[in-house]
Design a protein that fits this description.
With 498 residues, the chain is mainly α. The protein contains 22 helices and no strands. Among the domains are: 158 residues, no CATH class; 172 residues, no CATH class.
Length: 498
C-alpha cells in the first residue's frame, strides 16, 4: 500500500530534524571528548595515536551502519551519511599526511593532528547517534516526546555554554596596579627603531664574524684575546646600533605605549643582543688592557638602558629583554673588577647607578601584571576579529576549538580574562615573595584547573590561556638571579677599599 503524501512529508521533516539535533549532540560530545583528551598533555605521538584509533573506530562504525542498512532498504539519508563519512575520512587522511610533512619541516604538526582528531571524533559520535536512532525507531522509542526532551536538554546546555561571565574584581585591581606608567611617545618610538611601524623598521647590518664567547673563566679571557680582531670588526659594523643605544642611554627614561594589539610591534631583540654581547666584550678587552674606568663606563651604558627597559614595561617580552641586558652587564662588571683597577670615582658612579632602582619585588609584580593586560587585549582581539591571524599549527594543539565556526559556544571572552587576571594576581604575589616552590605548585594547580575533567564551558578560552601563559617560575628565577648579581655587586662597591 503506497504511503500517503502527508506521511512522506512528515517522515522527511522528522529525518531532517533528527539530522540537525543529532549533529548538535555529536558536536557537544566532541567538545567533551576534547576536554577528556586534555587530561594528558598532548604531544605529536599521542595525537597521532588518537587519530589512528579514531580512524579505526570510524571505519568500524561505517561498516556497522552499512550492515544495518543491508537488512532494510537503503535510504537516501543513510547513503548521504555513509558517503559524507567516507569523504571526511579521506580529508582526515590528507590532513594526517600534511601533519607529517609539517613535522619534517619543524613547523608544528600538533595543531593539524588535533583538527583531524576532532573531525574524526565528531563523525564517530554522529554515526553512533544515528545507529542509536535506528535502534530506538525499531522499538518505537524515538518519537516526538523523546525528541522534545533531548532538544530541551541540548538547549539548556547551549544556553549554559553561551552565558557570559561578569568581570572579576581582580581585573580592576590589576589594571590599577599597572596604571600611571611612563608613556612618553618619543622615547617609546626610539626603542622601536629596528621594529616595524610605528617604529622605523631599520635592518641591522650583517656582522662579518660569528663569535662564540665562553661565559666562564679562564676560557673567556683566552677567547677574547685570541679573537680581538673579529670582535673589533663586528663592533665597527654596529655603528648604527651603537648610535641608537647611545641615544637611549642619554635619556632619563624609556616610555612604553604597547597597547596589546596582535599587530603591535615590540622592541626587536636581535640588535639588543648583538650590542650587549659586543659592547661587553669590548669593555672586557679594555679591562684586560688596563683601562678599568673606560671598561666600567661602557658597562654602565649597557646596564642603564636595561634598567630603563624594565620599568616601566607594558609587556613581559620587553621586561625579559631588560633582565637579559642587566644580567649580562653585571656579569661583565664582575669580570672587569677582577681583571683591572677601577678608580674610586668610577666605582661610586657605577654604585649610584645600581642603587637608583625601584623596589625589585614591585617591579617584578608589575611586569607580570602588565603581561596580564597584554594577554587580555589579545583575548579581546580574538573576540573582535573572530579568530587569531595565525595558522593552525601556530595557534597550538587545540586551536581548532576556539578558531572554528563553533567559537560562539566554546569561547567566553570575559571568563578567559577573569581567569588570566585571577591567576596572575596569585602568581605575581608569589613571584614578588620569591617563593619558587609555591609558584611551581601553583603552576601545576593552574594546569589542573584549566584542564580538569567534565569542564565543557569556555573550552576555547581555557585552551588559549594554557597556550599563551608562559612558565612564570623560570621567569621569576631569572629575574631574582639578576637581582642577586646586582645586590652582590652593590655590596662589593660599597665595601671599604683595602
Amino acid at each position: 500500500m503506497p504511503i500517503p503524501s502527508k506521511s512522506r512529508a512528515v517522515l522527511v521533516l522528522e529525518t531532517l530534524f533528527d539530522c540537525v539535533l543529532l549533529a548538535v549532540v555529536s558536536l557537544l560530545g566532541a567538545m567533551v571528548g576534547a576536554v577528556l583528551m586534555q587530561g594528558i598533555r598532548p604531544d605529536t605521538q599521542n595525537l597521532a595515536r588518537s587519530v589512528t584509533w579514531l580512524a579505526v573506530a570510524v571505519v568500524i562504525a561505517l561498516a556497522g551502519w552499512a550492515w544495518i542498512e543491508t537488512k532494510r532498504r537503503l535510504r537516501p539519508v543513510s547513503c548521504g551519511l555513509v558517503t559524507g563519512g567516507m569523504l571526511l575520512v579521506g580529508g582526515v587522511v590528507c590532513l594526517w599526511i600534511q601533519a607529517f610533512r609539517l613535522e619534517l619541516e619543524h613547523t608544528g604538526s600538533d595543531g593539524v593532528l588535533a583538527v583531524a582528531a576532532q573531525m574524526l571524533m565528531f563523525l564517530l559520535l554522529l554515526l553512533v547517534c544515528f545507529m542509536a536512532r535506528h535502534f530506538a525507531l525499531g522499538r518505537r522509542w524515538w518519537r516526538w516526546p523523546a525528541r522534545a526532551a533531548l532538544s530541551a536538554a541540548v538547549a539548556v546546555v547551549v544556553v549554559y555554554l553561551k552565558s557570559d561571565a561578569e568581570e572579576s574584581p581582580s581585573v580592576v585591581r590589576n589594571r590599577e596596579a599597572v596604571s600611571g606608567y611612563y608613556d612618553d611617545e618619543a622615547s617609546y618610538l626610539l626603542t622601536l627603531r629596528y621594529s616595524p611601524k610605528p617604529g622605523a623598521g631599520l635592518v641591522m647590518a650583517e656582522l662579518p664574524h660569528r663569535l662564540n664567547i665562553p661565559s666562564e673563566e679562564p676560557k673567556r679571557s683566552t677567547y677574547l684575546k685570541a679573537h680581538r680582531e673579529e670582535i673589533e670588526a663586528n663592533w665597527a659594523a654596529l655603528t648604527d646600533v651603537r648610535a641608537w643605544w647611545s641615544e637611549m642611554a642619554a635619556l632619563p627614561a624609556l616610555g612604553d605605549r604597547t597597547s596589546g594589539r596582535i599587530d603591535q610591534p615590540i622592541m626587536k631583540f636581535t640588535p639588543v643582543r648583538a650590542y650587549t654581547h659586543h659592547a661587553l666584550a669590548v669593555a672586557e678587552l679594555r679591562a684586560l688592557d688596563g683601562d678599568g674606568d673606560g671598561a666600567i663606563s661602557m658597562v654602565s651604558d649597557v646596564f642603564k638602558v636595561g634598567a630603563y627597559l624594565e620599568f616601566p614595561t607594558c609587556t613581559l617580552v620587553r621586561g625579559m629583554v631588560a633582565v637579559f641586558v642587566q644580567r649580562n652587564a653585571l656579569k661583565s662588571a664582575t669580570f672587569i673588577f677582577e681583571h683591572a683597577e677601577v678608580s674610586r670615582q668610577a666605582r661610586g658612579e657605577f654604585a649610584a647607578l645600581l642603587a637608583a632602582r625601584h623596589d625589585p619585588a614591585d617591579s617584578l609584580r608589575r611586569m607580570l601584571l602588565a603581561d596580564g593586560i597584554y594577554t587580555e587585549n589579545v583575548v579581546r582581539s580574538v573576540d573582535n576579529a573572530g579568530s587569531l591571524d595565525m595558522s593552525v599549527g601556530e595557534m597550538g594543539d587545540w586551536a581548532f576549538i576556539f578558531g572554528g565556526g563553533v567559537r560562539w559556544l566554546t569561547f567566553d571572552t570575559q571568563d578567559t580574562i577573569n581567569r588570566i587576571h585571577d591567576e596572575l594576581e596569585i602568581q605575581s604575589d608569589l613571584a614578588a615573595a620569591r617563593d619558587l616552590d609555591a609558584l611551581r605548585r601553583r603552576d601545576d594547580e593552574m594546569w589542573r584547573e584549566l584542564h580538569g575533567l567534565f569542564q565543557i564551558k569556555n573550552i576555547g578560552g581555557r585552551m588559549m590561556m594554557s597556550l599563551m601563559m608562559p612558565a612564570y617560575t623560570s621567569i621569576t628565577r631569572r629575574y631574582w638571579e639578576k637581582e642577586d648579581l646586582r645586590q652582590a655587586m652593590l655590596t662589593r662597591l660599597t665595601a671599604p677599599l683595602d
